Amino acid sequence: MPLKPSESEEDYFKREELEKLKRLRKDAAKETLENERLRLKELHWMRCPKCGMELAEVKFRTVLVDACFACGGMYFDQGEVDKILEQEEPGLLKRMTSSLFGSSDS
């Protein structure tokens, strides 16, 4: 006569199976999110955030910036503005922001 597994054994294996299913679902969800992120990146890569047209890299001083020839937008990656400002005269940023935002001390 074959041995019948005890209830505690059955519960243990059921819990193990449930945990395995949870891990598989979590991994599948993570993979789906990553695939969607990559799809969106590919869809929007080097596209103008304003009009959606293709961006081109143009050299400004010693820095390559992204420019849209459809709407005239210029877009800077992280650190590119700092590189450009390092090459400019002192006080340029203050003058630029005061002309853009209207400073009362000019």
Structure, explained:
- The chain is mainly alpha-helical.
- The protein folds into two domains: 45 residues; 46 residues, no CATH class.
- 52% of the residues lie in helices and 11% in strands.
- It contains three helices and three strands; from the N terminus they run αβββαα.
- The chain has a three-stranded antiparallel beta sheet.
- Strand 1 and strand 2 form a beta hairpin.
- It is elongated and about 90 Å long.
- The model has no long low-confidence stretch (mean pLDDT 84).
SSE layout and pairings?
Layout: H1 7-44, E1 56-60, E2 63-67, E3 74-75, H2 80-86, H3 92-101
Antiparallel strand pairs: 1-2, 2-3
Q: Using the CA coordinates, give the radius of gyration.
A: 28 Å
- Helix fraction? 40-55%
Low-confidence region ranges? none
Category from helices, strands and their pairing? mainly alpha
Which structural traits does this protein have?
106 residues; 3 helices; elongated; 2 domains; single chain; 3 strands; 11% strand; 3-stranded antiparallel sheet; mainly alpha
Task: Give a short overview.
The chain has 106 residues and is mainly α. It is 52% helix and 11% strand.
